[in-house]
Amino acid sequence: MYSEKVMDHFQNPRNVGEIENASGVGTVGNAKCGDIMRIFLDIDENGVIRDVKFRTFGCGAAVASSSMATELVKGKTVQEAMQVTNRAVMEALDGLPPVKVHCSLLAEEAIRAALWDYAEKSGITIEGLERPGAMEDMQE
């Protein structure tokens, strides 16, 4: 049902934790399944993601998606991180069952929410980044 990579990232998640005074923090959730993801970014003066951590409350696929998403953006520029989609997360995990695809979408939304927070704190605009609406989903 789950790929070896999904199981590995669930059982041995990378980058778990929080970053104090993070450059950007994004929290997203899905009220229907109860998954909540929070991603913390530490971005340097050149716009490179120095460090990334996550806290996820949810199923194994949500934990694995969060873990993989952090691996995909670590060391990347803000613009490169913008290219990380739910499809990229799923492909990096060698796929997810259809009923768990929403977990990879949450990972993409959490990255974008953290980038939005960073942009607001820094007073900058990130090309192609739209205001996240994921927290509205929490109130469904």
Enumerate the spans where pLDDT stays under 50 for 5 or more consecutive residues.
Answer: 134-140
Radius of gyration, in angstroms, nearest whole number = 14 Å
Molecular shape: globular
Main beta-sheet strand count, sense and barrel state: 3 strands, antiparallel
Strand order of the largest sheet: 1-2-3
Report, as a whole number of angstroms, the end-to-end distance: 29 Å
Helix/strand/pairing class, anyone?
alpha+beta
Total strands: the figure is: 3
Helix content: 40-55%
Number of helical segments with 4 or more residues: 6
Order of helices and strands: HEEEHHHHH
Tell me the strand percentage band.
15-25%
Output mean pLDDT. 92
How would you characterize this protein structure?
The protein is α+β, with helices and mostly antiparallel strands and 140 residues long. Helices cover 44% and strands 18% of the residues. The protein is built from six helices and three strands, in the order H-E-E-E-H-H-H-H-H. Strands 1-2-3 form a three-stranded antiparallel beta sheet. A hairpin with a 5-residue loop joins strand 2 (35-43) and strand 3 (49-57). Helix 1 (4-11) packs across helix 2 (60-73), helix 2 packs across helix 5 (101-122) and helix 4 (86-92) packs across helix 5. The longest helix is centred in the last third of the chain and has 22 residues, at 101-122. It starts with a helix and ends with a helix. The relative contact order is 0.22. Mean pLDDT is 92; it is low at 134-140.
